[in-house]
Amino acid sequence: MDEDLTPDERDELAKLRADFFKRFKPPRIELTGELRQAMRREMQMFFENVLQEDRSVMEFVDSDYTFLNERLARHYGLTNLNVSGDEFRRVALPADSSRGGVLTMGGVLAVTSNPTRTSPVKRGLFILDNILGMPPPPPPPNIPPLEDAAKDFKDHAPTLRETLEMHRNKPLCSSCHNRMDPLGLAFENFNAMGMWREKELNQPVDVSGELLTGGTFSNIRELKHILVSKHRRDFYRCLTEKLLIYAIGRGLEYYDVETVDEIVARLEKDDGKFSALLMGVIESAPFQKRRTSAMVSSEKSPQPAKQQAAAVIKP
What is the number of H-type helices and E-type strands within the chain? Predict the structure, then answer.
């Protein structure tokens, strides 16, 4: 803890933290209202396309297309696609593109970053929570900041990967970080603004990793392939649970497990079509029998029989 340090040690730690943030600061690109709206519009149009064309929900994880206008295409470095003008349109991505799916959209990459640098921890947590449905427990109290681990490197300025490795060597940190970090580090080719980069501190960015559940990858394309091919059912369940919670307005209970299982089976049978998910939720017992605020209010303050009858026959 900082209060246990001497004044000289505090000054040294403050300089170390400032140097750490400076080294990982992304290029000076302003998140203007125009760029923010473009990122949001890309996600909205992508979702609308999956819904209206009744496509597989696995395209949220990986797809061979997205929606761009000139401003966003330039931000992504996709100038070779010849996208011009302010109007958004569907764009087919090259076969070797690392884009495709929600995970590599600028909006998601930006909100899962810190103001001054990327955050592999936040990005890994996003996948665990929203793709695999396996969120880790809350962090224990009094965990030191990540940048404090950089002080253990005396001979060179550590990369973010090296700093994370030192951080998760601590027993309190290892169990969760061993799950999150490999997932988050796979996105290190994307800076805090979602722009593509090849180097960090003049060194090639290392995005390779191995999942605790099995499977190694050397880039983001391979990670997305693992998620689509080996964790399809996990995503079906995670998406089902989140949409069902939204639809019924409450958390899930033990007696909802059967409903979730039925919707997941329906998705598997229909190749993940969005309609299978949507109709599965709508036709489920928790949704059909949900209690609205108006119903609860009427139960608390029942109307007299004459008023109820009058309400029914009122033209």
Answer: 14, 6
